[in-house]
Design goal:
Elements (H helix, E strand, L loop, with lengths): L2 E5 L5 E5 L5 E7 L5 E3 L7 H6 L9 E2 L5 E2 L3 E4 L2 E4 L8 E2 L12 E6 L3 E10 L10 E10 L3 E10 L3 E2 L3 E2 L17 E4 L1 E5 L12 E2 L11 E2 L9 H6 L3 E6 L10 E7 L6 E6 L3 E5 L23 E5 L14 E2 L5 E8 L1
Antiparallel strand pairs: 1-2, 2-3, 3-4, 5-15, 6-9, 7-8, 10-11, 11-12, 12-13, 13-26, 14-25, 16-19, 16-21, 17-18, 17-20, 20-23, 21-22, 22-26, 23-24
Length: about 350
């Protein structure tokens, strides 16, 4: 396995494995210029390979990010059966998703950026999915302190595709306590509520008057103990937010989220072309995972903001479609600005 390092002139530094495209370290300056690693992870490749259940720290997720109900979907008159690796449901591409394969990596350097092009060909039938899928993910670190993820894919048979990146962030610094004091803003008027197994019910529900209303900045921990059935199901936040998209026809990334960490002064903004965002508050971190330097990652010591199409979309015709057809190209962009 190989590790690749990207740097810019402002001190930002990114370490990436070819295994899973995993971001193992992301160093970002605070208000005084001090660098800290702001992503959770492990010290050894073996921990990434053997952790069970996998936390998906820093990895590329595919073919289908998030859940598919009962590990089944129908397409072109045929029912496909996938692994049920999350209770009764299929999660993050299955037992050996894109987080557990070795990607072909090509570094590049430009005048204002540096990056990596990662390629993987998923054969027909891998993890139960139809079609040979050729996926390409580009990581770009810019001189504007932006980390850009560009996703592209083609297939020779119709297949669901929903690629994302699964880094856990703590903007105070990895291992520096919990993230409950991070101030979060989400550009979303509604969520897709879930059942007890975290599968969307099909409803689009307003966040108005609920603990899911992050339209104005609010501490992540402000309403985690609120008496709300959705928080009970998720053991906290583990929900898809329906992003407000610009109505002027712009095809480029639009603002999805902003996170501010008061002690360090670090801010992270998320822009995406995707219609949804999974906000996960690290509810299943329970202190049993030994992270970097042996740090025990306790509950809510990191959060994820996974840009995506909605969970279980192949089983919900009313959701934005995720089926990629032959002769068409999957394209998605997410930008993190620090």
């Amino acid at each position: 396995m190989s590790v690749y390092t990207l740097k810019n002139t402002h001190g930002m530094e990114l370490d990436v494995l070819d295994y899973g495209g995993i971001i193992v370290s992301l160093k970002v300056p605070d208000r005084s210029g001090r660098l800290d690693d702001v992503v959770l992870g492990f010290d050894s490749l073996e921990q990434y390979v053997r952790s069970s259940p996998p936390p998906y720290f820093g990895a590329i997720i595919g073919r289908y990010g998030n859940r598919i109900a009962r590990g089944r979907f129908a397409l072109d008159g045929r029912t496909y059966t996938l692994a049920t690796n999350d209770g009764p449901n299929h999660l993050h591409g299955g037992v050996k998703g894109f987080d557990k394969v070795v990607w072909d990596v090509s570094p590049f350097a430009r005048q204002d950026s540096t990056g990596l092009v990662l390629r993987y060909t998923s054969p027909d039938g891998e993890e139960g999915y139809p079609g040979t899928l050729r996926a390409m993910v580009t990581y770009t670190l810019t001189e504007a302190n932006e980390l850009i993820f560009d996703y592209e894919a083609t297939t020779d048979r119709a297949t669901p595709v929903n690629l994302t990146q699964h880094s856990y962030f703590n903007l105070a610094g990895e291992g520096d306590g919990d993230v409950l004091g991070h101030m979060l803003t989400l550009n979303a008027d509604s969520i897709t509520p879930v059942d007890s197994t975290l599968i969307p019910t099909g409803e689009i529900r307003s966040v108005e008057g609920t603990p899911f209303d992050f339209r104005a900045a609010r501490a992540i921990g402000a309403h985690l103990d609120y008496d709300d059935q959705q928080l009970v199901y998720g053991r906290g936040y583990d929900h898809n937010f329906v992003l407000n998209k610009d109505r002027d026809g712009r095809a480029g990334p639009t603002l999805a989220a902003r996170v501010y960490e008061p002690s360090s002064g670090r801010t992270m903004e998320v822009y995406t072309t995707e219609p949804g965002l999974q906000f996960y508050s690290g509810n299943y971190l329970d202190g049993t995972l030994s992270g970097k330097r042996g740090t025990a990652y306790s509950a809510r010591s990191g959060f994820t903001l996974e840009t995506q199409h909605f969970p279980d979309s192949p089983n919900h015709p009313s959701f934005p479609p995720t089926i990629l057809a032959p002769g068409t190209e999957y394209r998605s962009r997410t930008l993190l600005r620090f």
